Amino acid sequence: MKRSVVPVINLIVLLLSIAAFSQEQPLKLVKSIPLPNVEGRIDHMGFDPKGHRLFIAALVNNTLEVVDVNQDKKLQSMPGFSKPQGVYYVPKLKKVFVANGNDGTCKVLGGNPLAIRTSVPLSLGADQMDFDPEAGRIYVGHGGKDAGKEYGEIAVIDAATDKHVGDIRTAVHPGGFALEKGRGRMFVTLPESNETVVVDRKTQEVTASWPLPSDTQQPVALALDEANHRLMVGTRKPPRVVVYDTDTGRTVAETETVGVLDGLYFSAKHKQVYASGGEGFLVVYRQNDPDHYEQTARIPTSYLARTSLYVPELDRLYVALPKNDKNGAEIRVYQPQ
Asked: DSSP code of 238?
């Protein structure tokens, strides 16, 4: 009788451990959406909350992939791009803006099905972008060495008219962006000069520069916790997340992260930070308080799965996995817990 009880007890303990482990996971894999006929590296993404459309810059393919995330199917695979990188969808105007690195343009798309309406000339290296909904302006990083310039630029585009209305000069080619809602500031990484600069969006001038710690280089991505005045900066050499106080520019925390980081997001709802990188992992941190961050998960994705997009409206994290020898390209969809 005693012998039969022991295996049962062991089984119960195992089941309880599995249940506890699953409950502790900060992200739940909901599904995977295939991306047929997509080759090579995948860059940034944009999202249409009402239409449930995900816009994916297939950098090597030179296409924009459009996916319905509710029906798990591809709606369009649009040609006509030249190293597409940054993507942003403006819901009010029902427009998609796509930055192209090889021809130095920002292409503007609209209609249903989507079609390219116009192309805004910038300079080579057009890459990441962001949008100021109050001013109705799209910001696009371009210039620098790719364009044969000794400085970088942030193009200012009127989203309603598609006109290039100005440029904000930076020391080198701009990297990632993060926009404050309340104070009219924009934070921009400068990977080649190892700093993050603060831009006044009204005057369109750089007002401050926050250097990285001396042993850290190449800041590429940003995430903003505006309520607590904290800016997370993702770096590659070495892979770290450095946290700044946005009131003072002072460094308040540092933590190791995934290699070849390209995606960094903060969820105010869950008090979590998400980092995706080409090393092949999705790393999750819990914000215990504004100055303390604890790694809670390191989830395998695939080699070169660099980019991701967190959509607060749906509370979903989308991670782009490029095609490899075993599997086709896909988008993995995670739900924060």
From this structure: T
